[in-house]
Amino acid sequence: MGIKELPVRVFVDPDLDVLLTTNTNAGTVLRQVAFDKSVQRHLGSALYIERVERYKKERGISEDDYNFSEVDLVKYFKGESREMKRYILDSIRDWITHNPDNKLKDFIDFGGKGKEKPLSYSTIEKTFYSFFIYRDALQTPIIVKCITS
Fold it and tell me: Which helix (H) or strand (E) holds 109?
């Protein structure tokens, strides 16, 4: 393509939480780069996973112990409870969307405006996900989800 130089930013030993949050905000709240909904959900899911790991580390919980609930996480990160609820939902949506057993994903256009596949991610989110995913944080231990997943 004739490009001889490529500007890059290299982050040495970055704070993953800061990078994920900044990247998510750039594509959602700040609208600097318009991220597709599926990308937003994937970033939210990554932030949820990071918060779970941080919760376990700060509380001294062993790595394989998931005997705490989504409600516990929301309470612990009380300064960002609204964001935590969104990260939880994003994680659920992302897990369903990318689950190997999801037979519907072959028919979903994740790019937003494509015409090759019959369903857009937005359509799936507005129909299936809005009807079938419980929107509040659960009080049951996360381990229950890990066992049934």
Answer: strand 108-109
* pLDDT tens readout for residues 13-50: 888 777 777 777 776 665 555 667 888 898 899 999 99
Euclidean distance between CA atoms 116 and 114, whole angstroms = 6
- The tokens describing 5, both together, are 């130089």
Q: How many angstroms separate the Cα of 100 from the Cα of each of 20, 34, 36, 97?
A: 25, 27, 21, 9
**Percentage helix, strand, coil, to 5, in the chain?**
55, 5, 40
Element (H, E) at 120: strand 119-120
Q: Sign of the CA dihedral 106, 107, 111, 114?
A: positive
User: 108: which DSSP letter?
Assistant: E
Residue 120: CB partners within 8 Å, gap ≥ 6?
A: 108, 109, 112, 114
Q: Name beta bridge partners: 109.
A: 120
55-74: pLDDT as tens digits: 999 999 999 999 999 999 99
Q: Taking the alpha carbons of 31, 48, 111, 113 in that order, is the dihedral positive or negative?
A: negative
